[in-house]
Each structure stands twice: as structure tokens, then as C-alpha cells.
Amino acid sequence: MKRTTSLLRLLLILMGFSLITAAQDLKPIPLPAPQTSGGRPLMQVLHDRKSTREFGPAKLSPQTLSNLLWAAFGINRPDGRRTAPSAMNMQEITIYVATPDGVYTYDAKANALDPVLAGDFRAATGTQAFVKDAAVDLVYVADTTKAGANPSPDAAMYNAADTGFIAENVYLYCASEGLVVVVRASVDKPALAKLLKLQPTQAIILAQSVGYPKEPATPSAQH
Ligand SMILES: Cc1cc2nc3c(=O)[nH]c(=O)nc-3n(C[C@H](O)[C@H](O)[C@H](O)COP(=O)(O)O)c2cc1C
User: Fold this and answer.
1) In this predicted model, what pLDDT tens digit does every residue of 58-78 receive, in sequence order?
2) Can you say whether the dihedral through the CA atoms of 104, 52, 36, 159 is positive or negative?
């Protein structure tokens, strides 16, 4: 009996430990300050912009992730306006970031990642097999309440357009930095919304996969 009680106590301690570990995993993660100068000349970047659907295994460093997210939709002026335009400056798009470690939302003001889920949910961000191989999968989610009580008939178009500007910023950053990327509409939106515990007022617009290029096979590997 005494032994059973001790075992039970040990089990409870271990369970408590794993809960504490999970809670620690879900703390906001501060990002390094984004490097907002440099990059390749714009016309060369436009020349190289393209979609790629094959990814190498390398992860993004915290610095590269910070730079990527700032380029995507970071704050670039003291009044809080962003690197991408948004209809009526609604700033209604939140970027969900699925990494091998967890899913986070990008907090541009705090320059941090706010945890949503612990674990690797990259595969759930799209219906295509390659999405699990990307270093990060971005999911663009519109907060439809930002359109106000009487939304314009064009509100859905604004959400799509605003997402498009962010996604293009990501394409250009990737072309500048030698990263590969593809924007995606092929997403199981109801399943992903459930996984991310989205509210009915939050709408998934698009997703985008980003990573390092897959190394070409070496000549010896081809034989
Ligand atoms: C709104 C939108 C949705 C897209 N959805 C997907 C998608 O679900 N899967 C995919 O592999 N590519 C997707 N793409 C990428 C296009 O297929 C790609 O941009 C197009 O083939 C032109 O190639 P390029 O980007 O290299 O110029 C999408 C592009 C846009 C703009």
C-alpha cells in the first residue's frame, strides 16, 4: 500500500513536471530586432521572384525569422503603420507562424512570437505534401471584426488584397535572401481553423511556405 502511494506520488510529480514544461514552452518568444537595411537591389529581387515547392531541411535562424516577419508586416513608422498597406489601415491580418516547435502569432509591436500551440503542425497548414518540409508555414488570418459593425460589401476583397501585399513582401524578402517560397490557397480551412481554435469572426485567407532551397543531388548520388 505504502509502495503504491509512493508510486502514485511520483506519477503526480512527473505529470506536474510535464505540465510545467508545456506551460514554459508556451511563453512568448522575443525576436531579435529586425535588420531593416541592406538586401539585394529591388530590380534584381523582382527578376528572381518565383514560387518554389521543394524545401531543404535547414531551419530559419531567429534573426532571419524576425527579418522575414518584419518584411512581411512589421511596423515601419512611429505611428504603427506597417510594411504592407491595408484597407483603411485596418491591419486586420494576423500572421500565424507554424515552425517545427509550435504555432505562434507574430506580434509586430512587441516583436515577439505569441504561442498558440506547442508541437509541429506545419503539415496541417496545407493540402500539399511539401508544406511539412518548409522551415516555416505562414497562415494569414483576417479579423473580420476590424471592418466594424457595418462592413463594406468589399470587406472580403480587402482581406484578400491586404493578404496579397503581405505575401508579396514575403516573396521579395525571400528572393533577396536566397530563401524559397510559395503562397497557397490550397488549405483545409475548416480543419485548420479548428486546430488553431479560431473564432467564427476570424477567416483564413491564404498560407505561404518559406524555407531554404533543397540542395541539388550530388553527381554520385544520381547513380
Ligand atoms: C492567390 C494564390 C493562390 C495560390 N495557391 C497555390 C496553392 O495552393 N498551391 C501552390 O502550389 N501554389 C499556389 N499559388 C502559386 C501559383 O501557382 C504561382 O504563383 C503561379 O504558378 C505562378 O508562378 P510564380 O509564382 O513562380 O510566378 C497561388 C498563388 C496565388 C497568387
Assistant:
1) 999 999 999 999 999 999 999
2) negative
- The amino acid at residue 19 is L
What's this model's pTM, rounded to 2 decimal places? Answer: 0.89
How many residues make up the chain in this entry? 223
Q: Judge contact between 95 and 59, C-beta under 8 A.
A: no
**Chain centroid to CA 106: how far?**
7
**Using CA positions, which residue lies closest to atom 23 of ligand 1?**
51
Distance CA 167, CA 163 (A): 6
The preferred substitution site among 182, 192, 209 for testing ligand 1, maximizing ligand atoms within 8 Å of CB, is: 182
Angle at 206 between CA 204 and CA 208, to 5 degrees: 130
What is the tens place of the pLDDT at every residue in 111-158?
999 999 999 999 999 999 999 999 999 999 999 999 999 999 999 999
Q: Which amino acid is at 109?
A: K
Residue 46 beta carbon below 6 angstroms from any ligand 1 atom = no
